[in-house]
Amino acid sequence: METRAPFVVVGAFVLAAIGAVFGFVYWLHNTGGLGPRATYHVQFDGSVPGLLAGAAVLFNGIRVGEVTELGLVPDSPRRVNATISVSSTTPVRSDTKVGLEFQGLTGVPVIALEGGKLLVNSGEVPTLIAEPGAGQGMTQAARDALRRVDSVLAENAEPLKSTIANLQIFSEGLARNTGKLDSIVAGLEKMTGGGTPSQKMTYDLRAPQNLGPASKTIKGQLAIPEPTAVAMLETQRFLFSPAKDHAGFADALWADSIPKLLQARLIESFENYDIAHAPLRVADIGQTDFQLLIDVRRFLIATDSEPAAEIGLSARIVDKNGKVIASRLFEDSQKFDKVEAPAAIAAFNDAFGRIAKDMIAWTVQAL
Question: How far apart are CA 269 and CA 260, in angstroms?
Fold first, then answer.
């Protein structure tokens, strides 16, 4: 007995020490520390699912205390009273908002406080009133929302039924008039330029071929820059005088804009005359001895009486100093039978061929 007595005393002391340590840790965890505390009463108007004594109290997301007591209000079964203990330095004001939040995957409930708008303490705050529905969880909120939706549907059952019936009648009407609707849509697309774009037909201007052997060569280096023209002529479309749209030319285009097309075919015409001394574009060479400057005055289809292709070009030859050596106006026209693209192209080729021959002969003579 005397031998075992010290062991019993030692064991009892160890157990008491362990219990004291656990008790201190528990107290420290639930009271939040050893500093001064402030106690507040919180009143919830509704259920607080899962809230327990010892639950955390957060202020602006920071833990400042814990729930110390929970209880029901005897004279108001809907309400729940909670007592919280927080650090005395927590800036709780009379307009501090109170709510219930659920944290983590398991949804552990905590009381959340948010600072109010008052900058100074308005005095002692005995009771904080939680916001309406503060204890409502997401599941309950979903149930309430579905309940309200069901109520709205029940109240408007007849109008909804009438609307669905009208939609059915409308869809049946659309099905019966599908062909007419397709025609209307096609007409709108055509009027607004929409729908599948039509296939464009591109036409080229032909340079004269049989110019014979060169009786006289071109002296010096000659260049033909891109002809100048008014904005109306900077186009690939066929132009008419008087201006009017013709169905046969709606999808007809020149191979390039009119000035660039004339430049290319004039150079080709000079090459067909004398390939060895033919002019080049200004961009192809540096300083040149002479330049043949072309201004496009007219390149259109006249439809006043009998349709005709009309071409008018103003030409000047200048030297490297900018001095005009010679100048001349070249004009020609060719009539054709029907206002159709193939006939007009043939007429333009004939008129341009004569102008190109005259311009070559004049240029060779001037140089």
Answer: 14
When pLDDT is cut at 50, 70 and 90, the band that residue 150 belongs to is: confident
Beta carbons of 185 and 178 less than 8 angstroms apart: no
DSSP code for 280: B
The neighbour count for residue 281, using CB atoms within 10 Å, is: 13
The structure tokens listed for 125 are 């705050």
The confidence score (pLDDT) of residue 124 equals 62
Distance in angstroms (rounded) separating the CA atoms of residues 154 and 152? 5
Q: Determine the length of the chain.
A: 367
Other residues' Cβ atoms within 10 Å of the Cβ of residue 253: 16
DSSP-derived letter for residue 251 is: T
In this prediction the pTM is 0.49
Rounded to an integer, what distance in angstroms lies between the CA atom of residue 313 and that of residue 295?
Answer: 6
pLDDT band at 1 (very low <50, low <70, confident <90, very high): very low
**Quick one: DSSP state of residue 78?**
E
139 token code pair:
């599941």
Angle at 211 between CA 207 and CA 213, to 5 degrees: 140
pLDDT, tens digit, for every residue of 199-235? 788 999 999 987 767 678 888 888 999 999 999 999 9
Alpha helices in the chain (DSSP H): 5-31, 138-155, 157-176, 178-192, 258-273, 341-366
DSSP per position, 315-365:
EEEEETTS-EEEEEEEEEEEE-SSS-HHHHHHHHHHHHHHHHHHHHHHHHH
